[in-house]
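[Meeting: bench + compute handoff]

Bench side (C.D.) handed over the final construct sequence. Compute side (W.E.) agreed to return the predicted structure before the next meeting so the bench team could plan truncations. Sequence as handed over:
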Amino acid sequence: MITTDPQEELLTQVDEHNQIIGSITRGSAHSTLGTFYRTIYVLVKDNQGKVLIQKRSTTKDLYPNCWDLSVGGHVNFGHSYPETAVREVGEELGLSVTESDLKYIGEVLVKLPNSGEYFDVFEYNLKPNQEINILTLEIGEIKWMSIDEIKKSMETKSLNWYERPLQVIASLY
Protein backbone atom coordinates (compact mmCIF):
# COMPACT_ATOMS: atom_id res chain seq x y z
CA MET A 1 0.00 0.00 0.00
CA ILE A 2 1.26 3.48 -0.85
CA THR A 3 0.82 5.96 1.99
CA THR A 4 2.09 9.44 2.77
CA ASP A 5 1.89 8.71 6.51
CA PRO A 6 5.37 8.24 8.09
CA GLN A 7 5.40 4.66 9.40
CA GLU A 8 8.50 5.28 11.57
CA GLU A 9 6.91 8.24 13.43
CA LEU A 10 7.27 7.60 17.20
CA LEU A 11 3.97 7.62 19.09
CA THR A 12 3.24 7.58 22.80
CA GLN A 13 2.51 4.00 23.79
CA VAL A 14 0.40 3.47 26.90
CA ASP A 15 -0.98 0.53 28.86
CA GLU A 16 -4.66 -0.37 29.18
CA HIS A 17 -5.01 2.36 31.86
CA ASN A 18 -3.50 5.11 29.66
CA GLN A 19 -0.22 5.18 31.59
CA ILE A 20 2.84 5.89 29.42
CA ILE A 21 5.05 2.84 28.93
CA GLY A 22 7.27 4.09 26.09
CA SER A 23 7.29 4.78 22.38
CA ILE A 24 6.11 2.74 19.41
CA THR A 25 6.33 3.39 15.69
CA ARG A 26 3.15 4.31 13.85
CA GLY A 27 3.48 1.21 11.68
CA SER A 28 3.79 -1.06 14.73
CA ALA A 29 1.00 0.70 16.61
CA HIS A 30 -1.40 0.04 13.74
CA SER A 31 -0.43 -3.59 13.27
CA THR A 32 0.46 -5.03 16.69
CA LEU A 33 -2.38 -6.81 18.46
CA GLY A 34 -3.09 -5.47 21.96
CA THR A 35 -1.30 -2.14 21.55
CA PHE A 36 -2.57 1.07 23.15
CA TYR A 37 -1.48 4.57 22.18
CA ARG A 38 -2.59 8.20 22.44
CA THR A 39 -4.52 10.21 19.87
CA ILE A 40 -6.48 13.48 19.74
CA TYR A 41 -9.55 14.86 18.05
CA VAL A 42 -10.42 18.54 17.71
CA LEU A 43 -13.95 19.35 16.60
CA VAL A 44 -13.78 22.69 14.83
CA LYS A 45 -17.04 24.64 15.02
CA ASP A 46 -18.26 27.62 13.02
CA ASN A 47 -20.29 30.54 14.41
CA GLN A 48 -23.52 28.53 13.97
CA GLY A 49 -22.19 25.58 15.99
CA LYS A 50 -21.71 23.35 12.95
CA VAL A 51 -18.76 20.98 13.03
CA LEU A 52 -16.24 20.63 10.23
CA ILE A 53 -15.98 17.05 9.03
CA GLN A 54 -13.35 15.78 6.62
CA LYS A 55 -13.02 13.00 4.11
CA ARG A 56 -9.65 11.38 4.62
CA SER A 57 -7.33 11.47 1.61
CA THR A 58 -6.69 8.42 -0.55
CA THR A 59 -3.11 8.17 0.78
CA LYS A 60 -3.96 7.71 4.48
CA ASP A 61 -2.58 4.46 5.92
CA LEU A 62 -5.85 3.69 7.72
CA TYR A 63 -9.38 4.24 6.45
CA PRO A 64 -8.63 6.23 3.27
CA ASN A 65 -11.67 7.96 1.72
CA CYS A 66 -13.68 7.60 4.94
CA TRP A 67 -15.34 10.50 6.74
CA ASP A 68 -13.78 11.70 9.95
CA LEU A 69 -14.13 14.50 12.49
CA SER A 70 -12.44 17.88 11.98
CA VAL A 71 -8.87 17.13 13.06
CA GLY A 72 -7.26 13.99 14.37
CA GLY A 73 -3.72 12.99 15.13
CA HIS A 74 -1.39 10.75 17.05
CA VAL A 75 0.41 12.03 20.13
CA ASN A 76 4.12 11.85 19.34
CA PHE A 77 6.36 10.41 22.02
CA GLY A 78 7.35 13.11 24.53
CA HIS A 79 4.40 15.37 23.68
CA SER A 80 1.10 16.08 25.45
CA TYR A 81 -2.47 15.83 24.22
CA PRO A 82 -2.96 19.64 24.09
CA GLU A 83 0.37 20.19 22.28
CA THR A 84 -0.68 17.61 19.71
CA ALA A 85 -4.11 19.21 19.25
CA VAL A 86 -2.52 22.62 18.56
CA ARG A 87 0.00 21.09 16.12
CA GLU A 88 -2.61 19.07 14.22
CA VAL A 89 -5.04 22.00 13.82
CA GLY A 90 -2.17 23.98 12.33
CA GLU A 91 -0.98 21.17 10.05
CA GLU A 92 -4.34 19.96 8.76
CA LEU A 93 -6.36 23.20 8.61
CA GLY A 94 -3.73 25.93 8.55
CA LEU A 95 -5.18 27.55 11.69
CA SER A 96 -3.08 29.18 14.37
CA VAL A 97 -4.49 28.22 17.79
CA THR A 98 -3.18 28.01 21.33
CA GLU A 99 -3.88 25.45 24.03
CA SER A 100 -6.10 28.01 25.81
CA ASP A 101 -8.24 28.28 22.63
CA LEU A 102 -9.21 24.62 23.01
CA LYS A 103 -12.07 23.38 25.16
CA TYR A 104 -11.48 19.93 26.64
CA ILE A 105 -14.49 17.64 26.12
CA GLY A 106 -13.35 14.28 27.44
CA GLU A 107 -11.40 11.07 27.01
CA VAL A 108 -12.55 8.06 24.99
CA LEU A 109 -10.92 4.66 24.57
CA VAL A 110 -11.52 3.71 20.94
CA LYS A 111 -11.22 -0.01 20.33
CA LEU A 112 -9.98 -1.04 16.90
CA PRO A 113 -9.32 -4.58 15.60
CA ASN A 114 -5.59 -4.57 16.49
CA SER A 115 -5.29 -1.79 19.04
CA GLY A 116 -6.80 0.69 21.41
CA GLU A 117 -6.47 4.45 21.14
CA TYR A 118 -6.95 6.80 24.07
CA PHE A 119 -8.43 9.95 22.56
CA ASP A 120 -8.50 13.32 24.28
CA VAL A 121 -11.24 15.26 22.52
CA PHE A 122 -11.29 19.05 22.26
CA GLU A 123 -13.52 21.64 20.61
CA TYR A 124 -12.35 24.81 18.91
CA ASN A 125 -14.58 27.70 17.84
CA LEU A 126 -13.43 29.43 14.67
CA LYS A 127 -12.70 33.10 15.17
CA PRO A 128 -14.28 35.71 12.86
CA ASN A 129 -12.41 35.97 9.55
CA GLN A 130 -10.31 32.87 10.25
CA GLU A 131 -9.79 30.94 7.01
CA ILE A 132 -9.30 27.22 6.74
CA ASN A 133 -6.58 26.02 4.38
CA ILE A 134 -6.78 22.24 4.25
CA LEU A 135 -3.71 20.06 3.80
CA THR A 136 -4.73 18.04 0.73
CA LEU A 137 -2.18 15.35 1.59
CA GLU A 138 -4.40 14.54 4.58
CA ILE A 139 -7.88 15.76 3.60
CA GLY A 140 -9.82 15.11 0.41
CA GLU A 141 -12.99 17.07 1.12
CA ILE A 142 -14.73 18.98 3.93
CA LYS A 143 -18.35 19.65 4.97
CA TRP A 144 -20.08 21.41 7.86
CA MET A 145 -22.71 19.52 9.86
CA SER A 146 -24.39 19.87 13.24
CA ILE A 147 -23.74 17.17 15.84
CA ASP A 148 -27.31 15.92 15.25
CA GLU A 149 -26.69 15.74 11.49
CA ILE A 150 -23.44 13.85 12.12
CA LYS A 151 -25.21 11.38 14.41
CA LYS A 152 -28.00 10.87 11.87
CA SER A 153 -25.51 10.28 9.04
CA MET A 154 -23.74 7.72 11.23
CA GLU A 155 -27.02 5.94 12.00
CA THR A 156 -28.25 5.92 8.39
CA LYS A 157 -24.78 5.33 6.93
CA SER A 158 -25.39 8.15 4.44
CA LEU A 159 -21.66 8.92 4.71
CA ASN A 160 -18.86 6.35 4.86
CA TRP A 161 -17.67 6.88 8.45
CA TYR A 162 -15.19 4.54 10.11
CA GLU A 163 -14.84 3.21 13.64
CA ARG A 164 -12.94 6.00 15.43
CA PRO A 165 -15.45 8.86 14.94
CA LEU A 166 -18.40 6.50 15.48
CA GLN A 167 -17.10 5.54 18.94
CA VAL A 168 -16.12 9.08 19.93
CA ILE A 169 -19.46 10.65 18.94
CA ALA A 170 -21.39 7.83 20.65
CA SER A 171 -19.35 8.29 23.86
CA LEU A 172 -19.29 12.08 24.15
CA TYR A 173 -22.31 13.42 22.26
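W.E. noted at the follow-up: The chain has one domain: 10-172. C.D. will use this when planning the next construct.
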